[in-house]
Amino acid sequence: MDLLVVGAGEMGRWIARTADRPVAVTDVDPAVAEAAAAGLDDVRAVPADTTETFDIVCLAVPISAVADAVERYAPHAERAMCDVSGVMEGPVEAMRAALPDRERLSMHPLFAASNAPGNVAVVADAPGPATDAIRADVAAAGNHPFETTVAEHDAAMETVQAGAHTAILAYALAAADVRDEFATPVSAALDDLVETVTDGTPRVYREIQETFEGADRVADAARRVADAEGDGFDDLYREAGER
Fold this sequence. Notes:
One of its GO terms (biological process) is tyrosine biosynthetic process. It is a single chain. This protein is an alpha/beta fold. 50% of the residues lie in helices and 18% in strands. It has 2 domains: 3-148, Rossmann fold (3-Layer(aba) Sandwich), CATH 3.40.50; 152-241. The model has no long low-confidence stretch (mean pLDDT 96).
């Protein structure tokens, strides 16, 4: 079974090199697709307006572009479509509408491609041999695919992505410039996390913040900590430890 990867950015290149089958890549920027194909073994680039069809089409596009990409590339998917966009509700609903009689799978690699392998959240909305083959490729590359639901995944992203990123970026913006010798184990760990988050692409993090709630809860919690006094702080400290 062959595979078309739509979107030749970081996650598109990840799925292209993870899939153990003939792969083609495309992108709105032909030069990006050509560069991705040149850097991967046995991968070819095709134009965004290709007329070819493939057994499986995998969308590795920004969250804001998923719905349009589903509609555009559904006719090119003979057996199945999947996505690795990072949100579940929109892609699953769009694929249900556009491909009611074909296999459908939504995956979210919970890591930057440079940190692979890792955990991969999976919603098998309409599973079958083609989507099972892609999941097997992901697992064979050392990743841990695990089943979830649309609702559970998107709710979890409010904490592990939107909330976590808000906390790290807020710390970075609030931190004063101090000598390295003053670092504590906690501040050093936070500095490492700041480096991890800010080493990415702003648009990716912006779309996460715009898609998932969670930032306001972190801001509210920070205000509770800042305003707490006496026993009130002790109560918050114990509450945090019970999470």
